[in-house]
């Protein structure tokens, strides 16, 4: 199983999150080495536990970052994190059966599907958001984004009691445009503004 080296192309341009991703690349590389060696289940279990603990720590920080920047796909991304934690938990609990194959799948999914695809969506969205904000007001994009993050506009739908929407979406709703939840298809409704 090929595990790529960390590269700046995988950066989300947040130093804290990038350092954690680099550590996860290292752990995945260690796991890949074990997959191709004759090792006992205790060695596999040790790397799994290290990967599992670090994933939980990283997911918490990454979700806080997404919340801070108002990432609109946070609920779906959080579900991906939850699913990955459940899969690793299952692997650890059933270490006797196909553990190398399962470890290879999780390691590949983590790097290829998650960091290189899902996490890069955060970066692309944030860059587009900052660019749109610059075009709207002509001011510094980071300053605009920071200012607009200070007040959170919270909405609800049938499947979620509360989630935050971007300022631009909030303004469109105030002007009469309707938005529907992508998951349950219900019309979203305003809950409250909250100082963050």
TrEMBL record:
Domain of life of the native organism: Bacteria
Membrane-crossing residue ranges in chain numbering: none
Domain Hemerythrin-like: 16-123
Record keywords: Iron, Metal-binding, Oxygen transport, Transport
Pfam family, one: Hemerythrin
GO molecular function (one): oxygen carrier activity
Listed SUPFAM superfamilies: Hemerythrin-like (SSF47188)
Family: Belongs to the hemerythrin family.
Name by which UniProt lists this protein: Hemerythrin-like domain-containing protein
Organism, scientific name: Helicobacter canis NCTC 12740
């Amino acid at each position: 199983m090929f595990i790529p080296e960390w590269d700046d192309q995988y950066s989300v341009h947040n130093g804290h999150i990038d350092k954690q991703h680099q550590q996860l690349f290292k752990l995945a590389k260690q796991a890949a080495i074990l997959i191709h060696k004759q090792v006992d289940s205790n060695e596999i279990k040790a790397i799994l536990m290290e990967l599992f603990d670090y994933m939980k720590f990283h997911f918490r920080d990454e979700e806080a970052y997404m919340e801070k920047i108002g990432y609109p796909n946070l609920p779906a991304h959080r579900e991906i994190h939850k699913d990955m934690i459940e899969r690793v938990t299952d692997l650890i609990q059933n270490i006797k059966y196909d553990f190398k194959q399962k470890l290879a799948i999780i390691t590949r999914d983590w790097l290829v599907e998650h960091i290189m695809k899902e996490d890069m969506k955060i970066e692309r969205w944030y860059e587009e958001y900052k660019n749109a904000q610059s075009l709207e007001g002509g001011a510094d994009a980071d300053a605009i984004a920071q200012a607009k993050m200070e007040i959170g506009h919270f909405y609800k739908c049938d499947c979620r009691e509360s989630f935050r929407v971007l300022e631009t979406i909030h303004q469109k709703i105030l002007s009469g445009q309707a938005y529907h939840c992508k998951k349950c298809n219900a019309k979203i409704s305003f809950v409250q503004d909250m100082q963050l």
